[in-house]
Specification:
Blueprint (H helix, E strand, L loop, with lengths): L6 H11 L10 H7 L3 E5 L9 E6 L2 E7 L3
Parallel strand pairs: 1-3
Antiparallel strand pairs: 2-3
Length: about 70
C-alpha cells in the first residue's frame, strides 16, 4: 500500500500492520514507539475538555494526553 494521506485510512493501515484489531487506544504506547513518536501524560486541569494533542517540532512528533479527570 502506498502512503495514504487520509488520516483514518492511514491509522487503519498502521493498526493492521501491527496486528491490532481491537480497541487501538489500549496499544497507543506500542504504536507510538514503533513509529518514533513520544507519548507524554500531564494533568491539565485548566483545560478539562482537552483530551490530548499532537505536538510537532521539525521532524519530532509527540502525543500529550491530559490525565485530568
Amino acid at each position: 500500500m502506498g502512503i495514504d494521506v487520509n488520516p483514518s485510512a492511514r491509522a487503519k493501515w498502521v493498526l493492521e500492520q501491527m496486528g491490532i484489531y481491537d480497541v487501538p487506544a489500549l496499544y497507543l504506547d506500542a504504536v507510538a514507539k514503533a513509529h518514533g513518536i513520544r507519548v507524554g501524560r500531564a494533568c491539565l486541569p485548566d483545560d478539562p475538555k482537552l483530551c490530548g494533542m499532537l505536538l510537532f517540532r521539525g521532524d519530532k512528533r509527540a502525543i500529550l494526553i491530559n490525565t485530568f479527570t
